[in-house]
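Supplementary Note 3. Input sequence used for the single-chain structure prediction.
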Amino acid sequence: MSSTVSRTSEGPAAAPTRSWPVLLVVVCAQMLVWLDTSILNVAVTTLADPEEGLGATPGELEWVASAYTLVVAGTLFAGGALADRFGPRNTLLAGLTLIGVASGAGAFVESPAWLIVARAFMGAGSGLLMPATLTVIVQCTPEEKRTRAIAIWSSSSGLGVAVGPVAGGALLSHFWWGSVFLVNVPIVALCLLAVVTVVPNLGGSRRRVLDLPGLVLSVLGLGGVVYGIIELGGGSVWYGPRVLLPLVLGGVVLAVFVAGQRRSATPSLDLRLFRQPGFTAGSVVLLIAFMALAGHLFYAAFYLQGPRGLSPADAGTVMIAAAVGIVLGSQASPALSRRLSARWTVASGVLATALTYVAYAWLDGRTPLSVVAALLWIQGFGMGLVGTPVTAVMMRGVPPRLAGAGSAVNSVTRQVGGTLGVAMAGSILSAVYRDRMAGAELSTTAPGLSPAAEEQARTSAEAARSLADSLNLPGLATAADRAFLDAMYAATLSVAALALIGCVVAAAGLRPRTAPEREGLSRSSPSS
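The predicted structure, written as discrete structure tokens, is reproduced below.
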């Protein structure tokens, strides 16, 4: 493949004649983001063990997981702007290097606090990497092949979700907890070599000045909002200072950021992108779809490892069905979009996920795992139908010089949506579970518990089962499973309602443009 790309003053103008090697490299790099998101799920129990792990408390474990998402969401706009300014290959190399160094350091830390710091730096590397990968695809792939390339890029999420839990379970069965982070280092090394060898140096927009105040404000604003969401999902009351203060301050900072971007001659986020109805509607659909999916996978993992009694590795194996569905749906979506249009392909995909979320309200501890796997496959296939057409619609009108900014919006909606979904599902699960385990339930199934033990049993189903094992109270474990299932039913119906809203937005907002609309958009395009 030729490594040269002709450019105009606005950025790359012609794509390489052979773009598939480039696509393979950036997809492998993108998989690291999803691998780091999913692999930790199987390690939390080990990290909580004072002998085998770090003796992390539940709150520390939550931040080990959340620090990564928080920093990814906070740095994505910065990553998009840096890709536009310095070129996507350079930003991709920087992101990969940061992930590799932080992963290597995180594998050998001796306290949960330092592991949280390492995860935060891994998130920063992912925040740089994600917009750069999509920017490379947009700039290196001929337009007639771009939808197929984006479909393959979208499939990386399914592969990462599949590989993460299975690889993590295999590593923990043979090595110490740090191996789930150390495994990133050789992968990063191979990706760095491949990027240097295969990906062309596209360069950045020579006329664009880096908007440092805007980058700082976007990081602080998104960081504050996501911090508040995480605290809400962790059980804090919505009106408490740990939730309300960061949400309000983050919202104010984001408002200042938006106001500044409107006046800036070289904005990090060109708000003219949102003049395109497809870009705006696509952003909303992605936000809602990933919010629903992340919330669902949150309680689905607890369901498989709780009432079903599966090990983390076995639960990860069952959830491969969702990953396979994502891959197949992503590959099928271009053909379906040509046949049905992007609008109805996306709407049908979101509707399919909504129906499977409703079906979870009928699951219990005896439901065959084949039924659970089938539902996960349908959910994954539906999400595969969503991601590729929406991304293609959003990026279709984005000029090459703003590809990083458009890619950042695409990635931010996925990450923020996922964080919101976990927060929403976690809050519902916690509230309903506590209500079901209150008072009479505990006194009937586990009479004579101390106040401290009762509070532990009400904290979570996992804590109640641990207490039941230590005190030989099987009735308490059964009550915890019943309470969890009731909480899951409430959460899954809420998630289904959210997905149905996304279906309506897709049907209404992704409609084909009329001739007058296309003419008006061409005059107000960000490239003008």
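The chain has 21 helices and two strands. The CA atoms of residues 96 and 188 lie 6 Å apart.
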